[in-house]
Write a structure and sequence with these properties.
By secondary structure, this protein is mainly alpha-helical. It contains six helices and no strands. The protein is globular.
């Protein structure tokens, strides 16, 4: 069953055109940036979404071709580091993906 879902996911990702994939990845990056926001309300909403308790979170991760558990971990790291250090960590992480 795991193999079938992996194959299905691979097919779905390959069907996405690059701009669509980039769009969904940008949604994840924005949520991660919001986790480091100095605006408390924005930060809390992002952290709640990053807990992955909604189907929407998993759908966005799937369309972005990101592993949900890794995205959740990144949100926790940013939360634990705080706003300033979290932003710096996120910037370094984004530079590594280029």
């Amino acid at each position: 069953m795991l193999m079938a879902s992996t194959v299905k996911r691979q097919e779905r990702i390959s069907e996405l055109r690059s701009p669509e994939l980039q769009l969904w990845q940008a949604v994840i990056w924005r949520a991660l940036q919001d986790c480091a926001s100095e605006n408390r309300r924005v930060r809390i909403r992002a952290l709640v979404w990053m807990r992955g308790q909604t189907e929407q979170f998993y759908d966005v991760c799937d369309m972005a071709d990101f592993e949900p558990e890794q995205v959740k971990r990144a949100g926790k790291v940013i939360r634990d580091l705080g706003c300033v250090r979290g932003k710096k960590w996120l910037q370094r992480a984004k530079e590594k993906t280029k």
